[in-house]
């Protein structure tokens, strides 16, 4: 019985780590989308640079299980979008304005993927809770 309860706790902890990682991923995606059309505050300056979350696995020694963690958030090194807008205050000497390297379609795809991963982890927690409840019901009868 002790192993069963630790297996339940391990399942819940692993799924919880997935929820935390996906929530962090959603935060980064929301920052990217929020800044998709921003420009530099200085003429000719660089705008917001897209951020990319990374994940890593770590051994949780108390649970003796591998859990996922949100790793470093790295800047996307792709080129900025450039538009010719000579009247824009952020324009450089030749009238070009740099916009962030954020593609809304890519961000929406990443958000959908994060949402599905979040739901999968949430389903694991719900299934584990149902199994615990069924076990308690069996023990009561």
TrEMBL record:
Q: Which keywords describe this protein according to UniProt? A: Bacterial flagellum, Cell projection, Cilium, Flagellum
Does the UniProt entry include the keyword Glycoprotein?
no
* Gene Ontology cellular-component terms listed: bacterial-type flagellum basal body, rod
Q: Which Pfam families does the UniProt entry name for this protein? A: Flg_bb_rod (PF00460), Flg_bbr_C (PF06429)
Domain annotation Flagellar basal body rod protein N-terminal: ranges: 13-39
Location of this chain's protein in the cell: Bacterial flagellum basal body
Provide the GO biological process annotations.
bacterial-type flagellum-dependent swarming motility
Q: Does the keyword Manganese apply?
A: no
Q: Which InterPro entries match?
A: Flag_bb_rod_N (IPR001444), Flg_bb/hook_C_dom (IPR010930), FlgC (IPR006299)
Domain (Flagellar basal-body/hook protein C-terminal) spans 94-137
What family is this? Answer: Belongs to the flagella basal body rod proteins family.
State the NCBIfam families in the record: FlgC
Q: How does it assemble?
A: The basal body constitutes a major portion of the flagellar organelle and consists of four rings (L,P,S, and M) mounted on a central rod. The rod consists of about 26 subunits of FlgG in the distal portion, and FlgB, FlgC and FlgF are thought to build up the proximal portion of the rod with about 6 subunits each.
State the name under which the record lists this protein.
Answer: Flagellar basal-body rod protein FlgC
Q: Which organism is it from?
A: Bradyrhizobium betae
The gene it comes from is flgC
